[in-house]
Amino acid sequence: MQDDAHPTRPDAPVLTGAQRQRLRARAHALEPVVLVGHAGVTPGIVQSVDEALDTHELIKVRLHQPEDKRASAAELAALSAAVLCGLIGHTVILYRPHPTKPKITL
After folding, report:
1. pLDDT at 10
2. How many domains does the chain have?
3. Residue 78: which domain range?
4. Residue 87, domain CATH
5. How far apart are CA 30 and CA 9, in angstroms?
6. Fewer CB within 10 Å of terminal CB in the chain, N or C?
7. C-alpha span between 29 and 46 (Å, rounded)
């Protein structure tokens, strides 16, 4: 699925379970860079996640008491064309390689 705001952004990469596990291990020391409040996943949140993924490639997003955290995590991953690497408590781990200069090699 291509986003109209980012027509050149590729779809989320397909990762193996082992690759997702390595990314989760790498994300362990990271602090959440985006906080999702009571309003849930909004266009502003998606834009913040996009910017953070462009900068860091691997990020944590903290959800504030969502009704369905799995659905919110999946929605956030889909809207940002990222891979959902894990959901630990209310913290989502997302990965999207930089389109031209990837920092993380799998």
Report:
1. 63
2. 1
3. 21-95
4. 3.30.110.60
5. 25
6. N
7. 23
Q: Tokens representing 18?
A: 């082992």
Closest residue by Cα to residue 77 from 23, 27, 12, 3? 12
Q: Is residue 66 part of a domain?
A: yes
67 occurs within a structural domain: yes
Residues 68-88 as b/e (b if ≥16 CB within 10 A, e otherwise) read: ebeebbebbbebbbbbbbbbe
pTM given for the model: 0.84
Residue 36 counted as domain residue: yes
| CA atoms of 90 and 1, how far apart (whole Å) | 26
pLDDT of residue 42: 92
Q: What's the rounded mean pLDDT across residues 4-13? A: 58
Radius of gyration of the chain measured on its C-alpha atoms: 13
